[in-house]
Queue: 4 jobs
Job 1
Amino acid sequence: MKKWFGTLNTVWLGLSTHKLRSFLTILGVVIGVASVITLMSIGKGSTQQILANIQSMGANLISIRPGASMFGGVRGAVGGVRTLTMEDADAISQQVPDITAVSPANTSNLQLVVGGKNTNSQVNGVNPEYFAINNINIASGAFFSADEYQSGSKVAVLGTNVATTLFPNTDPIGQQMRMGTIIVRVIGVLESKGAGFNSPDDGVYIPLTAMQQTVAQMRTPQGGRIVSTITMTVSDSSHTQNVIDATTSLLRTRHHLSASADNDFNIMSTEEIAKTLSQVTGTLTLLLGAVAAISLLVGGIGVMNIMLVSVLERTREIGIRKALGARDRDIWSQFLIEAALLTFAGGIIGVIFGWATAMLINRLGVMSTVVTADVVIMAVSVSIGIGIFFGFYPAWNASRLNPIEALRSE
Amino acid sequence: MDNGSIIIKLENITKTYPMGKRELTVLKGVNININKGELVAIMGPSGSGKSTLLNLIGCLDKPTSGTYYLEDKEVSRLSGSELARIRGQKIGFIFQTFNLLSRLTALSNVELAMTYVGGIDRQRALEALAKVGLSERVRHRPIELSGGEQQRVAIARAIVKNPSIFLADEPTGQLDSKSGEEVISILTSLHAEQGITLVLVTHDTNIASHCQRVIQLKDGEIVTEKKI
């Protein structure tokens, strides 16, 4: 204990004598650690944001989109072809087990006009289940009812942004609005979900039946009423894969696909989307971390350089210490601890700077950032490790000095 | 061991350094016995092997051949870290160039000697500085002290460990005559009052005259050994 205190005292003397040099030495480590912390926090922040967005879409959700069919070896873009129909949706809800709700939807970009104001918006034809499936809540008014759906009533529910654009000063509920060529009555406004993946804030929702009668009358060659997506919820997440398999084989049969043909639709669960996206952002985070780690490495080389100079400069001191009874390993540990302490201090300062930068980025609203304990612990341990790794050779050099020659040096 | 009071016993010590392809023999079979409490001067012209001999006695180096007993223990075959322990516990060095650490205070320099053996004891360090008459200057750095004072700090650094032998390599070589006399009088009084064993290398016959025995070296061999 006493001995350790002695060593630490020795090390502190070594460092405090050259304060500016010590600081400059660790600057590389400071910058390296700060950039690791900042970049990793950006990576983690975006991952969390994406996951939160997906979570807000609704759990246990499976969505089917048309497309992904092969045309002469070229994969068509998702949504590029129209192969899903109302009849597909009906068949799924009747034949696939463990489904709680199925919602076919059609979308179309239409002009909305109220008085002198107008805007372009994505109009979604949906059924009443759509809102529950997608975790969308009503802020004022009401969703359209099953009766209104059946009868194809011309009623609309607005996203918040659409509502504020078209009805800045008046209550939109009960108001008339022109949508493309038809007039609809506003019956509800949705709760905001904030900007994000598939946000309903900029959309308008009307009964799919109304849309098919008046807006988009598209049919397949076989006479099916085309829809642009089918979403459904599964009773329990453990059934998700079974539902995907059953739905896939049902749709393949209905679409008359041969065994070797690719699906002409794209089916995915939110879990899968989340998994794919977090894989992508995880890779991105690692990449950012790797770039920052290179600057840590450069910092480490700087530490080694200074430690070599320092050993050379203190040759005589090493000789004196050896004459006073220091063993090789006492000298070795002195310089090693000195290097490790330097980089540890650099790591701590770097964490403070990196954390502050991450907070600033968050505060300024540029990007959402998350500093996690594991990154901090990793960055600090890596910086200590760098000190030990790059201090090893200089310390070894110091310990091997011949005391007689060292005492003679000037 | 024929005599229990013998503290240093060198038997047929040789030391050879490689010089390129040839070898340089610095010590050619030296035999010396030094008793506990003896005050011995080693004299001789430059290159006679005085410093090499002192380094060997101080366990800073190992002989090429021959045997060295320090307090009845053979130390000529010990490993580096065992030698370091002996240096720390049993040897007190006093150098011509003082060899104090310039960034440390007098007190810290003295305490440095205890870092590697047992740990720092401030009280003992202060006592050691008092013995060399530097109680007033414990917080001064070497640059703020005169040469004589610096050498006295170095003596305090040596006595604080209470070593078996003191080795001084031209302790007055860099001092003016007055400071030199002060340093010698401190060393001789330590010898007289506490019975320390002191081996010193010197050019100065005046200093050698304070010693009980003078060993003359020439070309790596003892030429005369006279008791005073």
Job 2
Amino acid sequence: MANGTIAFDTLTTSDSVNTGTEKSIDTSYLFNSIPKQWSNYAGSGTTFRDSFNTTSATDNGTGQFTITLTNNMSTDDNAYLYSNNGATAQEVQEFTTGGDRQFAQIRAQATGSYGVQPIGDGGTQQDGGLNCSTVLGDLA
Amino acid sequence: MTIKTPKFQGTHLWDRLCWAKENLEGKQSDYRIVWEDPDKPDECAKITVPDPNWMACALQGGILPPVEVYWLLAEDEAKPDFKKHTRGYLLHNTKPVEAMTEEQAIEYLIMKDIPQRVWRNYDKANKPRLVICKKDQLPSTREWRNAWKIDENVVNLEEVA
């Protein structure tokens, strides 16, 4: 299949034929609101499962990681989203009220990298089996 | 089947990465970069791991910008009055680098993601501060992770940290 370019400024929903109502969205709205980088990795051993716009992860010690971007962001004033699981491995876990709870802090934001610091129930830094991070903002 | 990289010079780097995500299979590298920051001698050794999708781009060629582009952006960002990048076009308009071997990609990664004070003259320091090794040369558990240091006697890379 040959590579080509389709240029358009708006997307129109397919059900407009049925509803008789034109609904469209400027594609720049879509581009501005999608994640510009994301990654899913294991903290212990820092192995990527999948990612986009990511160059590397650095294990700086227990519960301290740095993620670097291939296409820098325009500024360091981005929205950083993070979710994780304190279990030692990625596994589908049932809902519980007990262990493996973590939260994380974003550290050392720059246009080409950011740090992540997962913290467990006891307030100490922990590696996590499942670390997912996302950056929203404008690309350089 | 080998897929040919489109002529990407002038194409936004983001679009190139979208193309790579669709067309290239990620490459999990066994290489790890173990390093210590000479400005923070009390900190433990750090371990940098290449991203598989990025490695696929490096091996494919014609996608990633020269590493010098990242240095220029870093210089801009280090200025006290930095607000936002105004030379992002360097990422998109500079001629992309050709296909690299995995070892060359690791060298590129060192120069992109590790501070220059670590890798410049790394071999002239009075103790090792940068080692490229294989994943299985690292300790198999993370016990005492925050005390890991590069073995000062590392010669044959059998045991790195």
Job 3
Amino acid sequence: MSSETTQTTYQLPIGPIHPALKEPVMFKFEIDGERIVDVDVELGHVHRAIEWTGMRRNPIQIIYLAERICGICSFVHPMAFCRAVENAVDIEVPERADYIRVVHGELERICSHLLWAGVAAHEIGFDTVLYLTWEMREKALDLTEYLTGNRVTKAILTIGGVRRDITSEHIPKISETINYFNKNFIKLKRAFLEDKTVKMRSQGVGILTYDDALKLCAVGPTTRASGVKKDVRADQPYAAYSDLGIDYTTPDLLTGEVNGDVYDRIVTRLLEVKQSLEIIQKAIDQMPAGDLVSEPKIPKLLNYIKKTPGEGVGRDEAPRGEVIHYVKFDGENEHPYTWKVRASTYANILPWIPMLKGEQIADIPIVAASTDPCMSCTNRVGVVNNKTNQKMMLDKETLHKLSIEKTRRLMR
Amino acid sequence: MAEKKETKNTNKQLSPEEVVKYFKDEFKTKIKSSEIKKRATGLKKMEFVNIWMKIDKSIFKDFIKHLCDLTYPHLAVCSGNDLGKTIELIYNFSIYFGKNLEEISFNVAVEVPKSKPEIETICDYIPGSLITEREKQEMLGIKVIGIPDERRLFLPEDFPDNLYPWRKDKETQKGIEKLYKNLHEGKVKK
């Protein structure tokens, strides 16, 4: 029994189903008292074999399959897929379609970042801020519905262009929404960035260094908050972004320094909301007239793809970072020979490990949520104490309570 | 974790043609083919560059080392194709990011025989490649030599061994079909 008495750490499994994670993923923590010593991540609980299914569908069908990979990134996945096909078999995209793609991409970013901001506020016990952010997000969703007919699965993209136009009739509603956001952004900024308690909970917590971010191939706001300038919109000319002059959003733009902590990730995302508003405004102002799609006849398009062998990659900056799709056509079949999808969270799994090491149990929800993992939630966490072999369950409410208690303690 | 390395690069930035030349000078005939694809976009018609390169398996590790020396790359993902007798792995890198509109998408393909599907790990140069290497092991049946963590990533524990979903041979197709056709086995009257 000596091994039992010398053991100083115990294991804390979190997941596969858990409140801070929007989709199932399994964490196994090695805990020493309150400190996290080691982390292991297990995936695959919601592997739906979408790529395997896609290799038995034609490219037009895949667009709608790709749209359902993720409910929040329902624009960027089909976008990356369409770009991969366009690159593989050389299909032109009309300029107007490039601009419309930008507007929808940025609108999705605003929805996603505000959703995240609400979740993050909830994790540390500020439910009033959750209501504020989600009220704002509702306006963005209303605009999405107004422009595409749907709030979530937008079905706006097609290979070689877009399916619906933005007409002069739409402009007043877009301007109205942008004005609403500009007015309310100040409120949001004050609630998040100037609040003493938010700072205490997020500064110096869940640090990801520049070197780790680069080596672990982190993407999106997670890597930019650590100072790595990596943003597909700015890195490579795609859609109309190269016309609009996009700059990298790093936290030092606002705070003058880069720490790579949770606070910096909040700063990066809020700045990006502001940036997205500017991009939408610019795209609307500069939008050229022209066609929406280069080949409107779908059977003709499919026949062309069927006959043309080629391979291509499509990259796109999703709200959470770079999304990449790889497609290969063999020139004989309508369905792609290979379709590989890499979502942004896939690349942000490994960076969780250095972020979580050394932190407290009460910090798990906010640190795990800070990379905005694209994964749903229900409520159960099991704690196994190796020393006494005693098992107890920590449910969602208890873990959430721990997090709130820490906030309240700091406020005193 | 790999040993601490200087990751900020100070080398001069090369054009796409120079990047291809750099590797061809170094590896000569071991670079099987290379192609530079450019695509213009938007109103200003700015071009984006894709480099596609096929290399021999024997120089793979050395190639990655040279790439890291040139500039520290971002590994997006490693895609794979089952080409019948061989399996092609495509490492989708991007280089020169962080400089406005100058990024190059660098796709390096390497073929391994299906009878001996082995490739060296690149986790010692790019620790972030672990996830994608683990995925290739379970989905395509690639043996990654020296991988720090060889557990499964996405597939469940009760998924049969020696069945690799992304392979296209008949045996695999039959094996997979058996898996999902038997899902409702209990309900079928015999």
Job 4
Amino acid sequence: MNTIDTKNAVLCAAGVSKSYGKQEVLKKLDLNIQPGCIYGLIGRNGAGKTTLLGILTGQNTKDSGEVRYGGETVWENRNALQHICFSRELTPNTASGQNALRVKDYLRAAEIFYPKWDKAYAEQLLEKFGLPKADRKKAIAKLSKGQMSMVTITIALASGAPVTILDEPVAGLDVVARELFYRLLLDDYTKTNRTFIISTHIIEEAAKVFERVVILDEGRIVKDEPTEELVGRFAYLSGANEALDAAMAAAGVTALETQLLGRHKMVAVELSGAQRAQLAAADGISVEPMNLQNVFVALCGHGDAQR
Amino acid sequence: MNGILNDQTLIYEQIAQLIEDGILNGEYGEDGQVPSTNELAHVFGINPATAAKGINRLVEEGLLYKKRGIGMFVADGAEKALRKKRREAFVSEEIKKILREAKKLGLTKEELLTLLAKQADEEGMQ
């Protein structure tokens, strides 16, 4: 698995490991990012999402493995890095105290760093998000959480970088602003067809925007495939306890999650088209579709939701 | 075209279904143009690749055809083919569902047919 696929992928990680002290955060992870695709990166808190994104963009060190952009190593490579924008979540405090940088300082830095920076587009975006001109002189520490997210998003979109990465871009936004963000993202993507990687905890509303989804669990990538192919392979089954067990055994599927309600049993399963048809035809068994959030819980919940 | 997307059915399936419905109800006549991938993506806020997958399913089934550089159009005979396909699906999915439920409720065949006929009369079905 430790091969680098530079033929199709734009950004490749091979055998990447990272530990903080004794805690192993990423475990020999491989990832090949295809060009012209919007990726969703989902994982539970502590799964290693931000660490992975930091390593992909040369902002974090790694213990082993390699990351390449278009065949060139990313680490300390200015040429590669100006094609990759990682717009991190802004925080009111930095390692050296309060974040006293102003919004316009961030915009200026982005303008210097990204060769394809589009100043007029950045202006338009800030206007759409309703961040008044006066607020751009404010220190980051004085902004609301939502306004910080807006600055992060503006920098990502206006960077024009062929690979643009957003870590929890909608965390501070209300539902209307989140809708606006996804719309702006899709409009940008339709025009530029560049690659986006977006991590989020608010899965369901983002699912329809992701062409592919990468699921990170306990430092490993457990799924990396087209969103709808993934979701289409999962289902909830329900029926009388013994009847369901028998039907599942006959079809050869195993439960990822199980809930009992008296003699009635509900299970989450991963199954093929043929297995789905077989179970749907079984008497007294119902087969219901899942959404991406359901799939995520079934795969990464490890039973915690039922405790 | 009308209708909004739900989050329990695959999106590309819903896109294909919406356009099928538009063909069946005459909104898109034969050789009429259907919305583009980008229009669908914009209106529903979905990934263009997903919208394209829905459109492509209809192309593969011969219901739509592509005019290069212009867009997607309804093929000759699409409405008729669609009606046939939907009727078959009606039998294999909807009617089976009704029969299952009827069995669960302990209805006889006779009783079910009487109920169906009565409801059809009430709705003025020919």
